[in-house]
Fold these 4 entries.
Entry 1:
Amino acid sequence: MISVEQAQQIVLDSVEKVGWEYVELLDALGRVLAEDVIAPEPIPPWDNSAMDGFALRAEDSRGASHEQPVMLRLIGTVGAGQIFDGVLENGQVIRIMTGAPLPRGADAVIRQEDTQASDQGVLILRQVGPGQNVRYGGEDVKAGEQVLPTGAFCRPGVIGLLAALGKRRVAVYHRPRAGIFATGDELLRWDEMPAPGKIHNSNSYALGAQVLQAGGLPVLLGPVADRKDLLARHLREGVRSDLLLTSGGVSVGDFDLMADTLHELGADVRVRGVHMRPGKPFTFALLEGKPVFALPGNPISCMVTFELFVRPALRKMQDQRSVFHPEITATTVQPIRNKDRRPAYLRVILTPTRAGYTARLTGDQGSAMLHSMAYADGLACVPGETEITPGSEVRVLLLGDEPAAGPLDGS
Ligand code: AMP
Ligand code: MG
């Protein structure tokens, strides 16, 4: 049986980038840039004041102090959004507000707190150097500079930067459409009343939420009963989306018909089982050229295999730069035993401490225990036949938000 890493590679080699579209700036939040953004203009556009105070020539403040203030003549006021029409000469100051363009002739701004108004003018109580409290044009972004590359994830700060450059629309990758259906005779449809032997279909909703979080668009189909003809029909319908996720019916029970059905439809089955726990029955195929992820039915196996195989695929389809979960090392506060030969992906709660994160299990780790995923901050990766003692380190995949890796850090 192949390893998690081998299965991930097979999956990633089997999926391609989706197309792109222009969207309004706010609609780009959480999406991935499909263009290199070159600054058409500098930020800030011109030299301006970083403070409320007075624009002056720095040399005029030479030697000024509280004990020996220098008196300068006030010749006008300039606020943000205004232009001072004139040139500042030696011996003069102009009242200036934060963000107002620096008047010609001035080379510094003195903070209001370092001055004192008087009938004759403005008393300068401190010496300032050239450039002090001045924000120079282009000091944030230079015209012609590439500020964001294709593949950058649009966080609020990115949206702000794009807006500051005057962008109103931006090219982003499509959100991959993921068809989703759960299989199982026991599953209630959302509009059905509970009945003996039947359970709610949680997988479709957990998967739908995971798809949304990974930037995709879920298309809920099914649930589908354990019958080959129905599975075949839904598989054919499902692959009209960019990818298809199914749950259940991939292990070795009498009603586990998914793999057979995929074969009968002529699918190219590329992964059939992975050396891992939970999630061993994970199956991956191409049907009519579209990726089909046949995930195990146990709710935790289903969600864990999504995080390890589907999410990276969704991210690659959107041209994301990093496709895997960020990893940290945490210290366990309890013994963690993996008696199985397969590597285990255990659900943990992370607590920040001064010495880094500690990890504790979310309770019972059975693959049907939904609470274990609901409370999890991360997946602890524990090699086969290993016991981790309290106080030792464990590798944890973070399930949370987008990491703060800058788009221009060269990684
Ligand atoms: P299967 O992989 O089809 O053998 O299902 C394994 C276990 O997961 C069984 O206990 C199922 O009842 C349960 N299960 C399968 N699909 C779902 C689902 N959509 N929602 C909740 N539980 C499910
Ligand atoms: Mg089943």
Entry 2:
Amino acid sequence: MKTAICPGSFDPVTLGHIDIIERAARIFDNTIVMVMQNSRKTYNFTTEERVSMLRRVTAGFRGVVVESSDRLLAEVCAEKGEVVVVKGLRAVSDFELEFQMALMNRKLNRTLDTVFLTASENFQYLSSSVIKEVCSYGGDVSSLIPPEVHDEIVNRLRIHK
Ligand code: ADP
């Protein structure tokens, strides 16, 4: 029984994240979406809000649960047992950082592997930061974020009224 761990900030969740989670859930028996809380980062949504939004969106997904952690990913994975980290790769720009993180995670936990799924072509350019930027100016992001959490995201991020 292999379990996938999909880590990220999800600040906020986008359809790009959901695409990766859905695809991981088709490959693995169980999938844990791990909302990471890094004390050096500032977020637009609290950990509880990010977890709650992901739970609403993934409620009907087979074998998917949402958890959060403020610890090192390699340690969290070691406690979970037989797990594989699943990450989405967009353009070449993601590659260097993801490569470095995958190697460091394996250095810290020698049985921990990272599997990359290529981003779907519709979401190659999509990131939480792009959503923040467009929403701040009141732009339409309805085709880029899940409908269940659309209003919560848009209301929080709109700053130029
Ligand atoms: P972001 O890079 O948008 O701030 P996160 O740190 O929350 O996102 O990313 C969590 C995971 O989701 C990472 O593996 C990231 O590569 C992946 N991801 C984010 N956006 C997309 C996307 N549009 N398509 C595929 N994977 C994505």
Entry 3:
Amino acid sequence: MSENMFHQQLVRNVWCAGRNYADHAKEMKAEIPKAPVVFLKAGTSVTSGSVIHLPNWSKEIHHELEIAFWLNEKLEYSHFTLALDLTARDAQADAKKNGLPWTLAKSFTDSCPMGQWLDIDSVPSLETLQLELKINNETKQLGDVTDMLFNPQTLLNYIKDHFPVAPHDVILTGTPAGVGPLKNGDKLEAILRDKTRPANQPLLVCQWDVN
Ligand code: MG
């Protein structure tokens, strides 16, 4: 599949795992889930742009850095990248309090910035992937795939068992601890590493400016 096949417009559904890192579940004062927690972001919430626009109706847009996987025609993982599951935390807190859906908090316009897709065969194993988010040069989030409560393949199996998964769907695998609010002027740098490679040779670096 050629690189331009991965244009953001081709993303169909975005299935997202919530609370998939125990340290993040704890910081949200949520229970450690016994089965995957899954919610949707609209495929049209995906953006490949490098500028993050904060919606004016929220006072608290949080960053959640996640590893994203692309599903091919066989509904297998074929590519991966980094994504931000931007979250209107104030709207989410209201929704939780009132027992309402999370759509406003999770699926607003441009709420899913994504990096460039890497071929899954470019790494020997998914188990050695590590993600890091720096804001204004300070590390805010750092996590390993091995910290996930449900690993990427378990998530995929669960999602396929329960939902109408289609080719060109994307799965977001949850965020490690350290989520927090973004403000205008913030400079984000997200790094994806394979820990079997030298630390100064990341697989992918994504940069986003908040404006
Ligand atoms: Mg998330």
Entry 4:
Amino acid sequence: MKFSLTDTTALNQDRSSPQAVTPTGQVHPASQVQHTGNALNTKTLKQIFQLSPIGMTMLDLDGHFLSANQAFCSAIGCLEPDLLARSFGEFTHPEDVSLLRALGEELLQGNRQHFQIETRHWNTNRDPLQVSLTGTLVRDSHQRPLCFLIQVVDLTERKWMEAQLKHHAFYDLLTGLANRFLFINRLEQALVRLDRHRDEQCAILFLDLDRFKAINENLGHTIGDQLLVALSKRLESCIRRCDTLARLGGDEFAILLEDIVGLEDVTTVCDRIQAVLKTPFKLSNQEVFSSISVGVICTTNSTNSTKSASDLLRSVDTALSRAKAQGGACHTIFEETMHQRATALWEIANQSQLAIERQELNLRYQPIIHLATGETVGFEALLRWNHPQHGSISPAEFIPVMEETGVITTIGHWVLKEACYQVCQWQAELLDIPLSININVSPKQFAHPQLVEQVKTVLKETCLAPGQVRLEITENAVMQSLELAKEVLNRLKQLNVSICIDDFGVGYSSLSRLQQLPIDTLKIDRSFIQSINAAGENIEIPRSIIDLASNLGIDVVAEGVETATQLHQLQSLGCPKVQGFYFAKPLTPDAALRFVRDTQPNKATKLPDYL
Ligand code: C2E
Ligand code: CA
Ligand code: CA
């Protein structure tokens, strides 16, 4: 028998039935219906059925639609007449069709009164629907099965929200990669597996973008975000599907390499990562160069194989710090001595006053050469630490720690005095050769309220001529607060101190912003010089810096010149000054003095080779 609630004949016919279906689909004894008599006549029932916010439909015993209310029709996406004679199965996931059939059978056999389950469907556009479905069998007055009443509550949106919440708990919103939580979870699972299969190995890579803060600050957060997304795609191309790439936060990423044979597998991935970053990223019509530092730990090393997940993560973080201290754009494999060294660095950074007293600190001087004449026009003072236990420690390692602990201001003051006194000593011997001295000033030192006063006192004590002292400050230190920088630099200029922007080009700040500051010299970062080759490739950045600076009347020094090719390319660009291992490594004060004499064109017995 087929019927529709739009012409409620079937229900009308069955007025004598001991049971009646309420608009919510529950089956009540007919007596109750009769009690409410006039109020719940067929017309009212029909209206309630139609207007119910719960989707309702009646199916014949073969699952074909007999009628459907508005809520059901709008969920399924068509009008009631278009549904009639079609089967509910057409809109239902095949696995759920068999389940519904089995449950329908149970209703027919009287094993249960109704059922409620979650089922999967499609609407007429084939969009997925997830519903909570209640099924009831309607019988006639003789208890013969008449039809099924199906009620559905749409759960699609709720399920989607739940899935989203679950996704957000495990995945990074920006890049779609695994997040820190999922990464640690996978690592812990991998360690459990390794425990059972002793011959298997895994490795963890911690990755941190070099100078990401500068990109964000100078090119904006939108480009910063685009870079992180583009980077994650490139990183994905470097690993296998079974490996886990995660974004731990900010510009920190991590990779879990499972089932590796040896350290070579890991270094291959590291090399691949550095290789894919050689090409610049094109973001919003801008070319952005980026490099990455990588810390590595591998369970192939027996000490590491017994470590917990959190120990491994701490160790790999130490390896990453080491890669950063080495100048970035490289990978460093964790060694046990690194922890000891990191702890020692903190200890010795706090012993800096003692180091000055014990004369463990000293300065080396790297010549700055005037390219047209070959003359040495000055030196850059570079700090060295000879530690009684740890030997010679690189400034790239201890200066960041000193910056963090704040002792850099004490050390910086010492460097300032030492370097200025040294120039005075040289000048006493080289009366007719004016030499300038470049002194590095760290960001914290630059922001220190005593800096200008300290410089003033040293200048008074040493009687150096105007312009002989040049302070090197990185563009990032200046850009941290342009207003403060302007004020400090103007006060320094009043003391006749020259200002040199160090590592220029890597900070992404525009020259037009720097133009607001009293700058005398730009030092082109050595990464741009070292990528110049014989074919004249990668010369564009040095060229534009030299051209712009020359138009603005600013002096330029190219640092890190190592080869004759780089020198010749810089000569052809008209670069005024150069510095680098090609001419000299940082020298002791005596060697520096000899170097000046040897490179004086009118006094030297032989012209330097590079001229
Ligand atoms: P920086 O100011 O960029 O100094 C140049 C660094 O490049 C020096 O490293 C120098 O030895 C190295 N270098 C020079 N020519 C070449 C070359 O041709 N090839 C290569 N590969 N490297 C070259 P160093 O002495 O290890 O200093 C590292 C950094 O430590 C310095 O980078 C500077 O940021 C910091 N630093 C050094 N001395 C001081 C100091 O007295 N105060 C402060 N605040 N920082 C300092
Ligand atoms: Ca410098
Ligand atoms: Ca530099």
